[in-house]
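Trying the structure run again after the queue cleared.
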Amino acid sequence: MIARTLRVAGGFLALVRTGLIVGLAIAALVYPMVALTGVGVKRGTDALSMPVGALRSSLPAQTSHVYAADGTTLLAQFYEEYRTYTTIDTISPTMQRAIVAAEDARFWEHHGVDFKGVARAFVANQKAGSVSQGASTLTMQYVRNVLRDSADTPAEVSEATEQTGARKLREMKLAIELEKHMSKTEILERYLNVAYFGHRAYGVLAAAEVYFSKRPADLTVPEAALLAGLVQAPSSYDPAATDAAAATARRDYVIDRMAELGYLNATDAAAARATPIALKLSEPPNDCLETRAGWGFFCAMFRSWWAAQPGLGANPQERLDRLRRGGYTVTTSLDPRVQDIAQAQVLKREKTRSAYALGQVAVEPGTGLVRAMAVNRTYSLDRASNGPHSDPRQRKRLRGNYPNTVNPLLGGGDMAGYQAGSTFKMFTMLAALEQGMPLDTAINSPKTFVSKYKTGRDSPAHCGVDSWCPSNASASMTGRHTMWSGFGRSVNTFFVQLEQRVGAEAAVRMAERLGLHWRTGIDKLQASPAKAKTWGAFTLGVADTTPLEMAGAFATVAADGTHCEPIPVVSIRQQDGSEALDAQGVPVARPRCAQVISPDVARGAIDAARCVTGYKAATGDCGGAGTAARVYSTVQRPVAGKSGTTDDNRAAWFVGMTPGLTIAGFIADPDNPLHRVGSANAGKPRETVAETLRDALAGTAVRQFTPPSNLVAHGTNAKPRMLKNRR
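Done. Tokens:
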């Protein structure tokens, strides 16, 4: 019986080599039941017309690796199937021989279909009356895996893996065709990169890492035999199971087969069988939840940024699918040293189990590169041990989002953010400077002022329930102020009047030019063309924003008016090593920069912002100590900035600027905006940002701010008047 079958198989092999294979005959040989169904005939015939080119060019889904700015520190991995392609020369010969011994002993001899194996399967299937053996070669298994991996629907996955004659026929046909165009070594390399080894490990590189924490080039004989034995049934032979007897037996079978095929001598085979299984398991991290401590919020911002890039796919889901399957190598902007400094400074002042979120974002002026994102939270979905909700109305049904949360507290997600208080005075000042009002513009600033946006009149006598009457934080601020003193001391009534002169809409549009977006319904309404002209309170920071946006906006000022969109990447390389390009052929990771205000206007704003930090203006009189007068003594290099608090100290901010780094820090309760941080906590963002700037810039060259022209400072074209004793 077997001899007759082998003669038939030999005849078919001859037909195969001349390209005259008859699909139905082979299917009938391997699966007798197929010959009895017309469905099998039709599906098998359809399969013969499938092109083989896709199999040659197809690479399996690959893990994307995301690194910090140094290019070596792994930040995160993204994958559907944990797999990284590796070439045959990086896989030990022992591993190559083990997989051949375990799965296809005649791999180097057949032409895609092993007809001796087919004959054995035919006999076994005849006896069983069903499919009990499949006679799949490594080439056929590779074909099956590629068809599965390239499937777009569950139905296609099922068709690629179902136990039918039609599927086997398709695999045979494609395997034979594939071996006409690819060498055995190429096929073996491809197979070792698609095979599933269990424990989420696809491909031999992943398997060596997951089971033994080593590279495939370093696998020993017992290790290689163990991995090779897993392919047939990873769950059944799982060496990490409580009882490893099945795994040991399967490994020893592979070792014996290697000896039978001459890959091992008897002594080495005996020594390999005597070696106990010694695993060094590692769990491959996936996505942002398993990234390095303190880095999760930056990782999540990167993921959101990626999903929003048109050059990476047609829609957010397609872009994320590509991230998980595309095998990208991404170098991010995150500076590990600056990130660790920023995180340490945050935790120094606010514990993780505090309802208050203290955080900061560092952006590089002139590039927009996000160098750090730190907050006193743990990036985690586990809320079981979180503290009580700070809103009494929610406390019975919800836990608070501390210390664990995945909410985008620092920006780059769908949270609206927090009111930023007087930091918004920057946008009003820029609008005024751009309209030709110099820094020495003087305005009498009373303790309380009635805004004309409500009453149409400027007399305090009309202050009442129907009027908006902003006041200064202290009566000592009453008097005549310029932009230097008004900004340095954060005089509300000065800036409300300045905003009336330039028009509230001009301040709103300035903020938009510097990268702010309106996320709440009320902010969108107030910023609309119909309402922006009357948004008098805008200059006092009543709109919501995020630390990421504010760092980007103030970095624009520090970069002489060049706005660069905050961006979390330096380079994005595809599987073949080429840079990822958008539809216009431009690198997706390019800086997105534009000159949005003139350098002279930006320099004027910096000069006034120096009054805040104690660094003193270069061209004017600060009129007393600024609201963050100790920042310069901490940073010990040129620094400007702006502090900000909201009504009733519900949130507090400080944004610090140097020519090389801008940091926006805040403290607030994300769960309950009505929960006041209080005056005792209001200084924490200022201290955190100042010490982070000091430590992050330590060892770097001291860079100076360029003073503004006399036209911006004093409204004349005369030579700039540089004040004495300016640092």
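Residues 1-50, 455-461 have pLDDT under 50 and may be disordered. Worth checking whether this holds up in the mutant runs.
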